[in-house]
């Protein structure tokens, strides 16, 4: 429902049409906070062209972003309803392709199985996984650095998911390959991506058949029990729901772990305080999620009607990006947002998990994983140091999902002053709109 056809970024602009700004290009993943702060404080609702060459509206102030998440006129499906008669593989369509009420009838099958209380039942096994991985990383490194993403964050997030899904040990290595490929498609061919979707589809349907015959106390069994009791979804929709929970729970959590450690390495005084008072870690997790997030924007939406934000009207048919990262650093919502404060009273109002009908269903598991990971790291590494300056870390992915490829850390690094890091900024003082 775009109002303009796709064009190549940087292509000549037709006579009489102004060129749209392109702030989300090559440098954005390295300094999103700086780019978004300037937009939020100077032109909080603005029209840009994305790196894909399409026009979109950016909404950047916390009040407007929160309103946008709750507004049913901002559609994820573009007003289209998927045809239930069409057979699809898991992941061909996911929850982000549906609006309520279809979104609601599918999502409700998983919501009771993903509560924080349900996730807490897996805590002991998740803690054991974290300890074993860090033991192995410490043993393997000698006196060199630990590459935290490959040695810990990725395998820990995957093992946590396997515990919640109760994936048999013998099947885990084969499952990791398609999960990791779909999480990061960089350099992969369309055929490789398609084959990985097919493998995930086969895995999920196989697990559905196995748990139907022999239910357990795992996520798949609970979703199937809710489906049998409530109905309201096709087998394809249930398979896609489970596949989405498996895949969405992987890379976003991996990146949140990496970003949290980067923030703490840049603030050694906060690392030390939390290591001395581990009871403060669960609350600090919300502040770290506010501080930096892999998804600078919520999933792109389409305005079904003209929608007003402040003095600006976004026309019907327009693409809309709600800026989570800009809202998380809006000084109107969070006082002194450029300070990392693990005791911040407003930290839980961050929007890194979204808001409203599309609030992340796996947030309980993500919080548990982050709490366990940080508790283990802070408990054993008292004076860590980055093996390279934080300003030299390589960021990849794109404007919708930033990705840290590697994070080499010296667990027994020297005491040091904070190193340069691309810290989020509150921007200039508020100006009335």
TrEMBL record:
<keyword id="KW-0349">Heme</keyword>
<keyword id="KW-0479">Metal-binding</keyword>
<dbReference type="InterPro" id="IPR036396">
    <property type="entry name" value="Cyt_P450_sf"/>
</dbReference>
<keyword id="KW-0408">Iron</keyword>
<dbReference type="InterPro" id="IPR017972">
    <property type="entry name" value="Cyt_P450_CS"/>
</dbReference>
<dbReference type="InterPro" id="IPR001128">
    <property type="entry name" value="Cyt_P450"/>
</dbReference>
<dbReference type="Pfam" id="PF00067">
    <property type="entry name" value="p450"/>
</dbReference>
<protein>
    <submittedName>
        <fullName>Cytochrome P450</fullName>
    </submittedName>
</protein>
<keyword id="KW-0503">Monooxygenase</keyword>
<keyword id="KW-0560">Oxidoreductase</keyword>
<comment type="similarity">
    <text>Belongs to the cytochrome P450 family.</text>
</comment>
<dbReference type="InterPro" id="IPR002397">
    <property type="entry name" value="Cyt_P450_B"/>
</dbReference>
<feature type="region of interest" description="Disordered">
    <location>
        <begin position="1"/>
        <end position="25"/>
    </location>
</feature>
<feature type="compositionally biased region" description="Low complexity">
    <location>
        <begin position="1"/>
        <end position="18"/>
    </location>
</feature>
């Amino acid at each position: 429902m775009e109002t303009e056809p796709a064009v190549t970024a940087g292509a000549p602009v037709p006579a009489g049409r102004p060129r749209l700004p392109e702030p989300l290009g090559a440098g954005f993943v390295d300094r999103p906070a700086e780019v978004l702060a300037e937009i939020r404080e100077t032109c909080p609702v603005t029209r840009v062209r994305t790196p894909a060459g399409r026009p979109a509206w950016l909404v950047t102030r916390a009040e407007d972003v929160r309103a946008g998440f709750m507004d049913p006129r901002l559609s994820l499906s573009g007003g289209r309803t998927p045809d239930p008669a069409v057979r699809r593989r898991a992941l061909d369509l996911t929850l982000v392709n549906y609006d309520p009420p279809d979104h609601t009838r599918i999502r409700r099958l998983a919501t009771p199985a993903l509560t924080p209380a349900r996730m807490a039942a897996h805590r002991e096994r998740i803690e054991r996984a974290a300890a074993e991985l860090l033991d192995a990383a410490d043993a393997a490194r000698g006196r060199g650095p630990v590459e935290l993403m490959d040695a810990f964050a990725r395998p820990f997030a995957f093992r946590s998911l396997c515990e919640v899904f109760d994936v048999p040990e013998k099947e885990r290595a084969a499952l990791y390959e398609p999960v990791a490929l779909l999480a990061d498609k960089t350099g992969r061919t369309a055929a490789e991506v398609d084959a990985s979707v097919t493998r995930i589809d086969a895995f999920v349907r196989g697990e559905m058949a196995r748990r139907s015959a022999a239910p357990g106390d795992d996520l798949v069994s609970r979703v199937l029990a809710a489906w049998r009791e409530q109905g309201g979804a096709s087998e394809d929709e249930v398979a896609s729901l489970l596949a989405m929970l498996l895949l969405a729970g992987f890379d976003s959590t991996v990146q949140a772990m990496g970003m949290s450690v980067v923030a703490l390495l840049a603030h050694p005084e906060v690392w030390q305080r939390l290591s001395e008072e581990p009871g403060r870690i669960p609350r600090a997790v919300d502040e770290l999620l506010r501080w930096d997030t892999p998804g600078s924007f919520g999933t792109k939406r389409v305005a079904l009607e003209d929608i007003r934000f402040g003095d600006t009207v976004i026309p019907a048919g327009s693409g809309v990006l709600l800026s989570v990262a800009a809202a998380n650093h809006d000084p109107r919502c969070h006082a002194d947002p450029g300070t990392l404060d693990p005791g911040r009273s407003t930290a839980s109002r961050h929007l890194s998990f979204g808001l409203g009908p599309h609030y992340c269903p796996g947030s309980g598991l993500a919080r548990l994983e982050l709490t366990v990971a940080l508790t283990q790291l802070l408990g054993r590494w008292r004076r860590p140091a980055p093996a390279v300056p934080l300003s030299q870390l390589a960021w990849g992915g794109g404007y919708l999902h930033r990705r840290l490829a590697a994070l080499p850390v010296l667990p027994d690094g020297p005491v040091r002053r904070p190193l340069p890091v691309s810290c989020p900024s509150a921007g200039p003082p508020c100006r009335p709109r």
